[in-house]
Each structure stands twice: as C-alpha cells, then as structure tokens.
Design brief:
Strand content: 25-35%
Structural class: alpha+beta
Radius of gyration: 18 Å
Oligomer: single chain
Order of helices and strands: HEEHHHEEEEHEHEEH
Length: about 230
C-alpha cells in the first residue's frame, strides 16, 4: 500500500502536473502593494494541486519562521507578531487530506494567480444546519497561501482571497449542488475575527476544544449569491 510520502515522490519524479484545462471562474483581486491580479478558481480533486500547496506554502512558512528568529525581536515585538501571524494551519498536509477525502460528498476548490496556488478549500455536503432543518455545506478546510497573510517578512502579495473563495463556494453549493443557502465551519482561534466580520454566528455547544463553531445564516449568505 502506497504511503503519502510514496505518492508525493511519485508526483515529483513523474512530473505530475495540475489539471488546468477547465477553470470554474475568472476574476481579479487586489495586490497587497498596488494594482490587480487575475485569478482562476478550479473545481475538482487534484493531488498535484494539493502537492503544490504543501510544497510552496511549506517553503514560505519555513523561511518566515527563520526570518523571525534571525531578527532577534524583543519579547514585546514577538508578542505583537504573535497577535496577528497565522500559523495554526501550517501543519496541514493538503496531499494527505486530498487522499483521505476523495469521495462524492467532498468538493475541492483551488484558486490560482501568478502561476501559484493562492488559496484552497474543501467542503463536505450535505450538512444539517443548526439554525433550520435544511441541508447546507460545511467547510472542512479553507486557507490562503501564507504570503497572502499579514507577516513581518514582506507585504501581502494578494488580499481578499478568503472572501473571494467563500463567495464562489456559496454560489457553487447552491446553484450546482442544490443546497440551501448558508454554511458552517469550525474556526482556528486566529481566524474567528474574520468569520465574525462576515456575519457568521457562534454556537458554543458545537465547539471542538479550541475550535469555535460558526454558521452563516441564509439572510447573511444571500449577499454572496450572484445573480444567475
């Protein structure tokens, strides 16, 4: 039986490339410095895309951690960096997750710009809402590339990708999967402010340890729904 390391080696040695023949949507997002960037969102299970996330994002996180160590920041400066830096999901292995979640109840989404994976998302469906009796979807994992997050090493390359991905997935889930408007997720501590800013509601009875449970009501999710 092949291990994840075996699969990763196979991808690298055989030069398995992501499938970019069909894209789901195109658009533009703001750069962190100036100007706009064109992006494409791709739908579908793809181990090569997952492997690119692990490789490129992992290299950046390693360099970021080394940069912070080399700066010899004061304890106060480190506390400040710790208050905004987001590394809670740096251990996520997207290839491993991809291999473990390839069945029909899971959907995969990758956002690419500048030739790199800029964000990734995987949802589970159907999921019962805690607000009503309809079926919605549940975001198992969502993340933007670490170079698109506030960090002390460099300016963010692209901004607003989390909202872009959520808007696309909301539309895909309602119009393609036929699910009720709305979704739920568990948030890492550093991302709770982001989800609360989107209008998501917290339900403490569904929390998992330090992961807070949120659901977006239909009337809030409606703002993300594009006209057909």
């Amino acid at each position: 039986m092949m291990t994840i390391d075996d699969i990763r080696t196979m991808i690298d040695q055989q030069g398995v490339m992501p499938n970019f023949t069909e894209h789901a949507t195109k658009g533009t997002v703001k750069r962190g410095t100036d100007g706009d960037a064109d992006y494409e969102i791709f739908v579908g299970w793809d181990i090569a895309k997952a492997n690119q996330c692990d490789s490129m994002w992992g290299i950046f996180n390693t360099n970021l951690i080394q940069f912070i160590r080399d700066q010899k920041y004061s304890p106060e400066e480190l506390d400040d960096i710790d208050s905004y830096i987001q590394l809670a999901d740096s251990h996520w292995d997207w290839l491993s997750k991809s291999c473990a979640h390839s069945s029909d109840e899971y959907e995969w989404f990758y956002l690419y710009a500048d030739g790199k994976p800029q964000a990734a998302c995987m949802i589970y469906h159907p999921k019962k809402s805690v607000i009503h009796e309809e079926d919605i979807f549940y975001i198992e994992y969502i993340a933007v590339a670490p170079w698109n997050r506030k960090n002390p090493m460099q300016e963010r390359e692209l901004v607003g990708l989390g909202k872009v991905m959520i808007q696309f997935v909301v539309n895909y889930a309602t119009k393609t999967l036929g699910l009720h408007l709305g979704f739920s997720l568990h948030s890492v501590p550093t991302a709770t402010g982001f989800y609360e800013s989107l209008g998501m509601l917290s339900f403490e009875q569904n929390d998992k340890d330090e992961l807070k449970f949120y659901e977006m009501p239909s009337q809030v999710a409606d703002q993300y729904l594009e006209a057909s």
